[in-house]
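Before relying on records like the one below, remember that each one covers exactly one chain. Contacts with other chains, cofactors or solvent are not represented anywhere in the record.
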Amino acid sequence: MSLLVRIVAPTGRDAELVQTVLRQGGIAAEVWGGDVAAATHDGEYPIGPLLIAEEALSAGLVGQLRRLVLGQPTWSDLPILVLTASGRRQKEMAELAELGAPILLERPIRTEGLLSSVRAAVRARQRQYEVRDALCERDRALAELEQQRRTLEVLLDHLPVGVVVADATGQILRGNQTTEKIFRHGILPSPDIESHGDWVSFHPDGRRVRGAEYPLARAMQLGRPIPAEEYLYQRGDGSLAWVSLAAAPLFDEDGSVNGGVVAISDVDGQKRSAEELRRSEERFRRLIENASVGVLIGDLAGGISYANPTLLRLLGYSAEEMRGGAVRWDELTPAEFAEVDRRAVEQLQRTGTAEPYRKAYRAKDGRLIPLLVGATVIPAGDGAAQRDQIAVFLTDLSSQKQAEAALIQSEKLAAVGRLATSISHEINNPLEAVINSLYLLGGEALPETARHFLAIAESELARVSQIVVQTLRFHRQSTKARMVTPEELLAPVLALYQGRLTNCGATLTLEHRGTEAVRCYEGEIRQVLSNLVGNALDAMRQGGRLVIRTGPTRLWADERSAVRITVADTGHGMSADVMQRIFEAFYTTKGINGTGLGLWISHEIVEKHGGRMEVRSAQQRAASGTVFRMVLPVENGSGWIRNQASS
């Protein structure tokens, strides 16, 4: 920057001489004849020092200088050099001195002295301009900084997340408006890390958060960002809401932590929605996994992506086999159900649901499981690669079919009983006629041989008559329980099986050991005894020994008096696997000759009477056979009788 020295002197040789000397010394200079107060800037040359000849001082010039000096900016201290003479302008010099400290150059002055003084004044003036430029740069920088600060505040206040800034001590310096909206209160005064504990929040496990545990404090301590963490915050209105806090340290130029910033997000709605969704999914999962019906999720192509435990147990497959794709629903279906499946798939594609229909799946062990099947389409998402899935609900009809079979068998047994009763009743009439005829014939004179055969006929007819009477008694069920002895219960049963005992060559051992009567429905108990005796004879087709014993005992549960009836045989016995299943409905070891209902019904009858059924069996070569023991309480109580009568 070039500074122009203004020379104020009377027009004449002195002014021109000084100008020439200064220019020769490399100093820009000009003679100024105007108002010095207006000499602030002239073209490309900023105002430089003033060089005034004393004789030019006048009251007017001093006034101009006063206006100039007093109007200077704060950075300016205009250098004024005065070429003094003999002190003729003492008054003006005194007034000039009041404006500052002018530099006095006493005449005569040598050229070098003049140049040196003027150069020093120029350098001083240049430094003032440098200070001015520095101040202008500072003011510009401060203005830009202020503008940036205002812009940053606007940005912070309009960010969708809360922002809090702290210094190196942890004192919170700034928090934006979003923070106040999320927390529903103003920024709390927090002069240090410990005071951050005044912001009341809780860990997910319910513990209160200490000041040093917040992400902001840890980020400043560790010198690295802390990822978002969720806390339950107590807002200004007293409500609790989930917030997410993520923090990062702030560094100075030498890399030291000089503060930190934390970002705050309101995740309460998202968190609660996610929790509600999780609970809903958990409820749905429990509902599906504990459902009494099978649930299968797959696609129309036959793939299976999920099967609930009920279906897995029913089919005998593991979850890993299902997930691994080892099982397909179309492969589980026997060929005869392909057509109904095809119609169901067409209905699914057309309406989104398939009306329930009956089919069967083949289990892993080869069994056919009868099922009632219903299905609905689960729409796929928006992704083009996704396909619709189907949810299939399968009800096991095995129990229903078993119940139907049991009902049919029960009806058959009832029909047989009614038929046997009817036949026995009808036989009685001709039987009485034959017996009477034989009786009358016995009064006639007959040869001895004829009388022998007549006695045999009478004996056999008496046995037939007894069988008829016992058959009627066996199938006739009383309407209420009554007291009956074990002997009375067994007599009709053994009478029915007397012929089979003789035909199979088995011997009967019957032992009654002073048992008292029991209260029961005698027809039902005789049905149990008939089943036990019949099974024993089936196991001894090549002969053996049938042992029936009765005696007193006590029930395990409450030590009540009870009666024990034991039926033992020396037949072929049962394996452990068979013994585990003998009381299951429809389980039989007799092939097509067995229904699998006898022992199941017998077990139900004994339990209904408050008793229990026990079994032991062996298949050893030297000692094989089976022992059934039925234990019945002597008195079941009026409550039991009333319940049975009403059922």
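The chain has five domains: 4-135, 159-273, 291-395, 402-459, 477-646.
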